[in-house]
């Protein structure tokens, strides 16, 4: 099937508006790209992993960091703020893995680095990435192929 976001034009307009809104939260674009990539890795969405990697490279992300984002806890390449955003992304993506989906410690660490607008931008990016992952995985979109 063609990607549902391409079939229903209003969907892409809505996604575009959400993506634009994430850039208004004061979070560095590279951090948002890393969040998108990590969410897509967790969900096993090859189309989004590919797209997020390409987008991050275009925004100036290094291959070294892209190659290690799946193991960000052990890699020395990420700032404390990026680590907080990645932890929040993981917890908010794996909602059913624990009773307390996003533990206070994870939220508090993110809130230590980002104000309310920044947190909103990260949470919206997590939601958009998960939404895209579900569209792409459900309809078996292929990495590297435009729709």
List keywords for this structure.
globular; mainly alpha; 147 residues
Mind sketching the topology for me?
Blueprint: H1 4-7, H2 9-22, H3 29-43, H4 46-58, H5 63-68, H6 80-93, H7 104-113, H8 116-138
Helix pairs in contact: 2-8, 3-4, 3-6, 3-8, 6-7, 6-8
Account of the 3D structure:
The radius of gyration is 15 Å and the shape is globular. The mean pLDDT is 93. The protein is 67% helix and 0% strand. The protein is mainly α and 147 residues long.
| Alpha-carbon Rg, integer | 15 Å
Succession of helices and strands: HHHHHHHH
Beta percentage is: under 5%
Instruction: Give the low-confidence spans.
Output: none
Shape: globular
What's the N-to-C terminus distance?
10 Å
Structural class: mainly alpha
Count of discrete alpha- or pi-helical segments spanning 4 or more residues: 8
Largest sheet: none
The total of beta strands comes to: 0
Instruction: Tell me the helix content.
Output: 55-70%
What value does the average pLDDT take?
Answer: 93
Short description:
With 147 residues, this protein is mainly alpha-helical. It is built from 8 helices and no strands.
């Amino acid at each position: 099937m063609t990607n549902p976001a391409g079939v229903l034009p209003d969907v892409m307009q809505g996604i575009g508006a959400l993506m634009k809104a994430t850039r208004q939260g004061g979070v560095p674009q590279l951090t948002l790209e890393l969040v998108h990539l990590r969410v897509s890795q967790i969900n096993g969405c090859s189309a989004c992993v590919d797209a997020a990697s390409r987008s991050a490279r275009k925004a100036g992300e290094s291959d070294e960091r892209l190659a290690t984002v799946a193991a960000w806890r052990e890699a020395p390449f990420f700032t404390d703020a990026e680590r907080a955003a990645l932890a929040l992304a993981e917890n908010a993506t794996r909602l059913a893995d624990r009773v307390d989906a996003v533990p206070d410690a994870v939220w508090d660490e993110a809130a230590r680095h980002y104000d309310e607008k920044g947190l909103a931008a990260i949470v919206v990016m997590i939601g958009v990435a998960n939404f895209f992952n579900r569209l792409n995985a459900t309809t078996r979109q292929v990495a590297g192929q435009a729709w």
